[in-house]
Amino acid sequence: MNAMAPIEQVVDMIIVGAGISGIGMAVHMTRECPGKSFAILDRRSQIGGTWDLFRYPGIRSDSDMHTLGFSFAPWKHEKSIADGPAILEYLNEIADEFGLREKMRFGQKVLSADWDSKTALWTVVTEQDDGTSQRMQGRFLFLGSGYYDYDDPYDANFPGRDKFKGQVIHPQFWPKDLDYQGKKVVVIGSGATAVTILPAMAFSGAGHVTQLQRTPTYMVSRPARDGIANGLRKVLPEKAAYAITRFKNITMQSLMFKRVRENPEKAKEFILGETAKHLGERFTESDFVPPYNPWEQRLCLVPDADFFRAINEGKADVVTDQIEAFDAKGIKLKSGKHLDADIVVTATGLNLAVAGKIAVAVDGKPVDFGHTFNYRNCMFSNIPNMAGVFGYINASWTLRVDIVGEYITRLLRQMDTYGAVAATPVLPQGAEPEAVNAFEGFSSGYLERAKDRMPKNAPSLPWRLNQDYRRDRQDMRQAPIDDGVLHFTRARELVEA
Question: Under 8 Å CB-to-CB from 223, ≥6 apart: which residues?
């Protein structure tokens, strides 16, 4: 059926995903390659991606919106740590401003993408909501589908879960209008999702919320409102105020990360000291001192100290233990203690999905991304005319989206200059660089579980996914497109072949 489906459209670029990555790429195409056509495909019914999917209480950014926002679209809200609805509003405004809606096709689940070197085209097969298939062709394919599995979150397989008489909920599939008023809630996990859900439920009517964690995480409190940003907006034009705030936040974040890595013990002492100040006598080493150094996993942001306030006011608590089994009334712990619960939220993490689980092939040969190398933070060895985004672990996702968008539009203009129809980062067999851990120094579970499926990293550019935004920005803006690694195929070569 797929092979017989007609070609619906041929465009210069097919963008998969109408979330932050796809919208960012679409705006860069609109601004920097105005003569080129593109289409945005998304399996969902509206824009937003992650921010449309996740609907759990308190859903918010864990980065400030002056860096999670785009370089070309100032963040205008008073709060710099924004909730999900405000982020969706921001993305919708951008879609309207740049006329992106007419390019979007919803209810389109991308199943496969096949590159044909004879025609220099990607053929993308999509499945509609009614089960029928369509095909579209594009000269370039951009994967903006995010980094995790929308269908299957990580399942820790806790024993006895079927015996529990209450509700078990994963944040990725939050029920609409869940009634938790006056109920005992246990949130399993210690990452950003758990740290967000606990205060949100505690301050909106839950009887009591317990965060059950196997190990603590580092938490950093900061105001939800950026006083400097809001002050600048009162005296400067919107774009100027935004640019200054963005530069300030990028610089401060980069300096903080480097200082933490250079002197982890001092950073640990400072972060834990601040946590202890917030919690007073409720601070305990077993619940708030992680067994790893800061930034080996992403720091958890606590806006306006809401997590700590929930604990101090007796609305919530933290238990550090391991699960032995669920039973009818809650969770039995290996320490012998029992946590009674009406609702259990399993904020135990996500599964990472490579290339949006799309079956990618080049000239009929399936691509195993685990055998490719990253190229220039966005392309993949020996795969023509394809790019994607995997955001920063130590900074805002959107920072990578912006520099990748700039780079890819530079590449497309260079291809036009050359009369080229394909650009391939060529890595000959036997000439592969040493492969190193793409996320060296980071121990997050979702990265560990997927490391064998992710593209490989070399010790140095261009064959790596880097974690230094300021260096990457300079490299991707200034490094020559024709760097001796990219191979350009001219249109005449196709005719001659």
Answer: 303, 304
CB 410 within 8 A of CB 29: no
pLDDT tens digits, one per residue of 105-122: 999 999 999 999 999 999
- Asked if residues 194 and 213 have their Cβ atoms less than 8 Å apart, the reply is yes
Which pLDDT does position 156 carry in this prediction?
A: 80
Structure tokens at 242: 């935004």
User: Coil, strand, or helix at residue 301?
Assistant: strand
**Contact residues for 442 (Cβ-Cβ < 8 A; gap 6+):** 295, 296, 297, 298, 393
Instruction: Please give the Cα distance from 41 to 414 (Å, whole number).
Output: 26
Do residues 379 and 387 make contact, with C-beta atoms less than 8 angstroms apart? yes
Strand partners for 185: 209, 343
What domains are there in the chain, each with its CATH number?
7-151+353-496 (3.50.50.60), 173-346 (3.50.50)
Q: Which residues, 6 or more positions from 199, have their beta carbon under 8 angstroms from its beta carbon?
A: 58, 306, 307, 309, 310, 316
Q: How confident is the model at residue 314 (pLDDT cuts 50, 70, 90)?
A: very high
Residue 332 has pLDDT above 80, yes or no: yes
- Phi first, then psi, for residue 323 (nearest 5°) are -85, 125
pTM, rounded to two decimals: 0.93
